[in-house]
Amino acid sequence: MAELSLVSGSVGLITLQSPPVNALSAAVRRGIVDTMQRAVSDPKVRSVVICGQNGVFCGGADIREFGSTMTGPPLVPMIHAIEAADKPVVAAIEGSALGGGLELALGCHYRISHAKARLGLPEVTLGLLPAAGGSQRLPRLIGVPAALDLITTGRHVTAAEALKLGFVDQVTDQNTVEAAVQFALSVVGQSLESRRISSLPCPCPVDVDALFEGVMQRVRQSARGAIAPVACVQAVRAAATLPYAQGMQREQELMATLFTSGQARALQYCFFSQRAVSRWSMPSGARWDTCKPKPVTKAAVIGLGTMGRGITVALAQAGLSVVAVETQPQQLKAGQRAVSDMLERAAQRLGVPSAVQGVRYSQELQAVADAHLVIEAVFEDMALKEQLFKQLSSICKPDTLLCTNTSALDIDHLASQTHRPQQVVGMHFFAPAHVMKLLEVVYGPRSAPQAVATAMALGKRMGKVSVAVGNCRGFVGNRMLMPYVEEALFLLEEGATPETVDHALEEFGFPMGVFRMSDLSGLDVGWRVRKAAGLVEPGKMSRVRQGRRYSPLGDLLCEQGRFGQKTGQGWYLYETPGSREARPDPWLHSFLEEYRARQGLVSRRIDSQEVQERCLYALINEGFNILQESIAAGPEDIDMIYVFGYGWPRHRGGPMFYASQVGLPRVLQRLEHYQQLHPDVPHLQPSSLLWRLVSSGSPPIHRWREVIRKPHSAL
Ligand SMILES: CCCCCCCC/C=C\C=C\CC(=O)SCCNC(=O)CCNC(=O)[C@H](O)C(C)(C)COP(=O)(O)OP(=O)(O)OC[C@H]1O[C@@H](n2cnc3c(N)ncnc32)[C@H](O)[C@@H]1OP(=O)(O)O
């Protein structure tokens, strides 16, 4: 898995060979140890170049090995042996040098990088730290502040930035291996003392304590309970304050804690799940690998409200030619200005040409006639959308894909308004659509697999994590959100305040609790949906609607014009309409007390555990129903929707992974407990899939699909 050849008469070329990213598996590590020993002892070899096959240097340690007992030579002594070699060793970096891959390069005496390569220490994103000496070598080479930035964020940098920071010696846009070989020939015989990074002192900032205290405070705040960023700071501190050998010892101790933590398991599950969801399947048996997407170069967006603007930007930035249609002249003008501004700003930030020229604007629906794909983003009103789909069906070419950005309306019903129901899918973006990574691609019973493949491919082109899901009310994300929000409202009725509920959810790791989130997105949004569902009875306080428990609290606030941040009042109070800082609202507290008194409800103290269990287990329970109904193909799909679209803390792996970590019997038992206390709440009734999983011995999450597919009679 690593090959040694002699090139240019005296350079030993070691090539890592482990597709697709030359990860440092046991076999690769064995290969490196073996080829290095041979190169060092071969008198014909005067210098060494290490490169990776197929244009990738190395994607780091083999993450798949982390779940099992590690075998093969360990990384740390392997890298020490490279650094200690008495012949110059040059890393030839193409494609990626990430994690252990960059640590390997830091053990080499020189680093030559291709201009297009990306380098970084992303271990923190996997719940780890750079524990093959990376946390000790990088600060010695580029200084503490820059190393802290790279190690605690895990961000990948370009070769140009790596050169500027000082951890790459030369950048080339020619053949990197040839450049590295020439370089290796030129440094033969030069002293290697100053090239062994571990022997260098760490440039220590003047007030080291103040620096690390400040950084630690910032990191803890943004980590939302994740432990790896904190350990990364501790490891870099060891580099700045201890001799190298002791720093390495600290690095290993910290890694040992992280390595076996549930957070590392969750983050590594997310890494693989993010890639797995692109391998979609439908209940019909259609799959990603048997279905080719249609090429899309011309797209149209209808409606230039907030969503339409973001979608237009995302499409234009992906290189498509876009026509944006808005029938209201004022809205068209405002939309055009907003889209152009967003495109210009992004181009400036990224240093790329602006995509402004790729967008045309029109007031006429006819302008979409030659598009390959149309996405409607008009007001969330079924009658309006029905009318639009009828028109699109006659305006567009027969093979044009017709997509809706609806967040909850019935895709199948919209498809039935057209002469081509097989060409209709949902493309549910999340606001702001050009920023948020998640895209739910929603298929109805009549959607053609090729339509799904095309929407999924387009999502990938826009840089989205696209998840294919079936059609149902709210699809996956919003459907699971309904019981979560309802439980939060019930908790208010029983004695909690918005502050106590939000605090418990933020403590869990959400960036915002349910009530702060509701204030941000606007209480009127849900009110409209509930009105359309016939649930709202103005002025009425009844707590049973359509045969089940209901809380009218949200409706009562909306009736008072309290729509959240935009009106300056919602579940919280804001300084002025539009301002963001939520303050507890004494009016709301007395309103809740009065409400409870009028309903005859006795207020009780509710702790964080109850808030978390009731909100999260209700949401998770709906996830099991979704799996049971094959609306989502597997738990990874649900988890990626929640991580990328709903702020679920990544270090907890997504709701279904979290349930598997808590233990399915425990989740079942707590749901049963709450259901006994609240028998009128259907979403606390444990899902039959949860029962089946528990009675099948609670298999690990990667084996749930076997139980899902098994007929009830086989259990
Ligand atoms: C008791 C304590 C003991 C502790 C002992 C441990 C000591 C360990 C010492 C050091 C540890 C170092 C830690 C690391 O190095 S962790 C790994 C850090 N590296 C990364 O995070 C990079 C991850 N990969 C990527 O970012 C991308 O894959 C990239 C390399 C940029 C290529 O991107 P792209 O071209 O878009 O391709 P894909 O992402 O789709 O990947 C293609 C398939 O390759 C799989 N893959 C990628 N990287 C790895 C890897 N490092 N290990 C295993 N597999 C990897 C990826 O999953 C794709 O396959 P699939 O689609 O089947 O999932």
TrEMBL record:
<dbReference type="GO" id="GO:0005777">
    <property type="term" value="C:peroxisome"/>
</dbReference>
<dbReference type="InterPro" id="IPR001753">
    <property type="entry name" value="Enoyl-CoA_hydra/iso"/>
</dbReference>
<comment type="similarity">
    <text>Belongs to the enoyl-CoA hydratase/isomerase family.</text>
</comment>
<keyword id="KW-0560">Oxidoreductase</keyword>
<dbReference type="InterPro" id="IPR018376">
    <property type="entry name" value="Enoyl-CoA_hyd/isom_CS"/>
</dbReference>
<dbReference type="InterPro" id="IPR008927">
    <property type="entry name" value="6-PGluconate_DH-like_C_sf"/>
</dbReference>
<keyword id="KW-0511">Multifunctional enzyme</keyword>
<feature type="domain" description="3-hydroxyacyl-CoA dehydrogenase NAD binding">
    <location>
        <begin position="298"/>
        <end position="471"/>
    </location>
</feature>
<keyword id="KW-0413">Isomerase</keyword>
<dbReference type="GO" id="GO:0004165">
    <property type="term" value="F:delta(3)-delta(2)-enoyl-CoA isomerase activity"/>
</dbReference>
<keyword id="KW-0576">Peroxisome</keyword>
<keyword id="KW-0443">Lipid metabolism</keyword>
<dbReference type="Pfam" id="PF00378">
    <property type="entry name" value="ECH_1"/>
</dbReference>
<keyword id="KW-0456">Lyase</keyword>
<dbReference type="InterPro" id="IPR006180">
    <property type="entry name" value="3-OHacyl-CoA_DH_CS"/>
</dbReference>
<dbReference type="InterPro" id="IPR029045">
    <property type="entry name" value="ClpP/crotonase-like_dom_sf"/>
</dbReference>
<feature type="domain" description="3-hydroxyacyl-CoA dehydrogenase C-terminal">
    <location>
        <begin position="613"/>
        <end position="697"/>
    </location>
</feature>
<dbReference type="Pfam" id="PF00725">
    <property type="entry name" value="3HCDH"/>
</dbReference>
<protein>
    <recommendedName>
        <fullName>Peroxisomal bifunctional enzyme</fullName>
        <ecNumber>1.1.1.35</ecNumber>
        <ecNumber>4.2.1.17</ecNumber>
        <ecNumber>5.3.3.8</ecNumber>
    </recommendedName>
</protein>
<comment type="subunit">
    <text>Monomer.</text>
</comment>
<dbReference type="InterPro" id="IPR006176">
    <property type="entry name" value="3-OHacyl-CoA_DH_NAD-bd"/>
</dbReference>
<dbReference type="InterPro" id="IPR036291">
    <property type="entry name" value="NAD(P)-bd_dom_sf"/>
</dbReference>
<comment type="similarity">
    <text>In the N-terminal section; belongs to the enoyl-CoA hydratase/isomerase family.</text>
</comment>
<comment type="pathway">
    <text>Lipid metabolism; fatty acid beta-oxidation.</text>
</comment>
<keyword id="KW-0520">NAD</keyword>
<dbReference type="InterPro" id="IPR006108">
    <property type="entry name" value="3HC_DH_C"/>
</dbReference>
<dbReference type="GO" id="GO:0070403">
    <property type="term" value="F:NAD+ binding"/>
</dbReference>
<dbReference type="GO" id="GO:0003857">
    <property type="term" value="F:(3S)-3-hydroxyacyl-CoA dehydrogenase (NAD+) activity"/>
</dbReference>
<dbReference type="GO" id="GO:0006635">
    <property type="term" value="P:fatty acid beta-oxidation"/>
</dbReference>
<dbReference type="Pfam" id="PF02737">
    <property type="entry name" value="3HCDH_N"/>
</dbReference>
<keyword id="KW-0276">Fatty acid metabolism</keyword>
<feature type="domain" description="3-hydroxyacyl-CoA dehydrogenase C-terminal">
    <location>
        <begin position="474"/>
        <end position="574"/>
    </location>
</feature>
<dbReference type="GO" id="GO:0004300">
    <property type="term" value="F:enoyl-CoA hydratase activity"/>
</dbReference>
